[in-house]
Automatic annotation (TrEMBL):
A Pfam family assignment: URO-D
One GO molecular-function entry: uroporphyrinogen decarboxylase activity
Domain of life (superkingdom): Bacteria
PANTHER family to which the protein is assigned, alphabetical: METHYLCOBAMIDE:COM METHYLTRANSFERASE MTBA
Annotated Uroporphyrinogen decarboxylase (URO-D) domain residues: 80-331
This protein's name: Uroporphyrinogen decarboxylase family protein
GO biological process, one term: porphyrin-containing compound biosynthetic process
Length: 351
């Protein structure tokens, strides 16, 4: 099977020839250290990575060497892999009324997607990153003001989230026209201790917009992967009921148990995750990488419906040798039918 076929088979909760793997971020320093490639698709083809994630193109205006304003009017500072918002265009409803939403049909919006599809050539899956309905309003208002808006300006919060629904729905339509089959909506709605707001507030004020977006994308014929770090247990029934095809990364640092998720929800959604990218893939011995990979396969991969990956991303702190070894273990241990007896022994450190 091709990498693309493996990913699609797993998203259908079926069993491919081996467990597929992919990451939301492949840090180019890490990939270059392994194969000499900074291009993620070239790396994927060499190392058996089955799909890559590609962002849409939004313009940005440089302010200085560290600051820029993106197409959503958010001022950001770049000092690591994730530019941080420091200036916000929306304070109240008047700001929103005067705000011009970036054109979802702009041709340049899809330049990186088109290039990735050409390079992948049907061999590697291309997953498009689509804006969810939580993180963009958070960035446009600032985190504290956005959370406060649910109490003080609930209509503004709803308008911002609905704007995201409409924009991303149109983006999804255009992506499907280009041949994209899978999207990831990637807002973190939790941290390691729980949701970023009261579960009741999420269900009442946020979830209806999220479900509408998921359903709209599904109607376009897209598979939808939901990403969020943290402890999602308070709203797991709602997330599954929204119609998502897959949940990621089943964060072990957020008390999320992938074996429980497989047993409880594996008949309804696929799972992606969850080798620890804070310690195991950063600093632990290779023997621990092998044991954790085997345990993850035992917990989540039986019968298919599992995309094995890190617990977040291959960030710049990942040890190249550890990630390379993980990929080798996926190819060795992840072939169906699974040898569960051998996997148990490996997971327990017996062989």
């Amino acid at each position: 099977m091709t990498g693309k076929e493996r990913i699609l088979t797993a998203l259908k909760r079926q069993q491919p020839d081996r467990i597929p793997t992919m990451e939301w971020v492949l840090n180019p320093d890490v990939t270059e250290a392994i194969t000499g490639d900074r291009d993620q698709i070239a790396f994927a083809k060499k190392m058996g990575v089955d799909a890559v994630a590609v962002s849409l193109n939004y313009t940005k205006e440089k302010i200085d060497d560290r600051h820029f304003v993106d197409e959503w009017g958010v001022t950001r500072i770049s000092y690591d892999e994730y530019p941080t918002p420091v200036g916000y265009p929306i304070k109240d409803e008047n700001d929103f009324k005067n705000f011009k939403v970036p054109d979802p049909d702009a041709e340049y919006r899809f330049d990186s997607i088109k290039q990735a599809l050409r390079e992948a050539d049907g061999e590697i899956g291309v997953v498009a990153r689509v804006k969810d309905i939580f993180s963009l309003p958070r960035d446009m208002m600032g985190f504290e003001d956005f959370l406060m808006s649910f109490y003080l300006q609930p209509e503004l919060a709803a308008q911002l989230m609905q704007m995201c629904v409409e924009h991303s729905t149109r983006i999804g339509h255009n992506l499907r026209e280009l041949g994209i089959e899978v999207v990831v909506v990637g807002d973190d709605i939790a941290n390691n201790t729980g949701l970023l707001m009261r579960p009741e507030m999420y269900v009442e004020q946020v979830y209806p917009h999220f479900k509408q977006l998921v359903q709209n994308l599904k109607k376009e014929g897209l598979y939808v992967i939901k990403h969020s770090d943290g402890d999602l247990r308070a709203v797991l029934p709602e997330l599954v009921d929204s119609g998502i095809d897959c949940l990621d990364p089943i964060d072990p640092l957020g008390s999320m148990d992938i074996a429980y998720m497989k047993k409880t929800y594996g008949g309804r959604i696929a799972l992606k995750g969850n080798i620890d990218c804070v310690k195991t893939l950063v600093e632990k011995p290779l023997a621990d990488v092998r044991k954790e990979t085997a345990r993850c396969i035992l917990d989540a991969s039986a019968g298919g419906g599992h995309i094995i990956s890190s617990s977040n991303s291959i960030h710049k702190g990942i040890a190249p040798d550890n990630y390379k070894y993980f990929l080798e273990q996926v190819c060795e241990l992840g072939v169906y039918p699974l040898d569960t007896q051998a996997l148990e022994k490996i997971a327990n450190g017996e062989i």
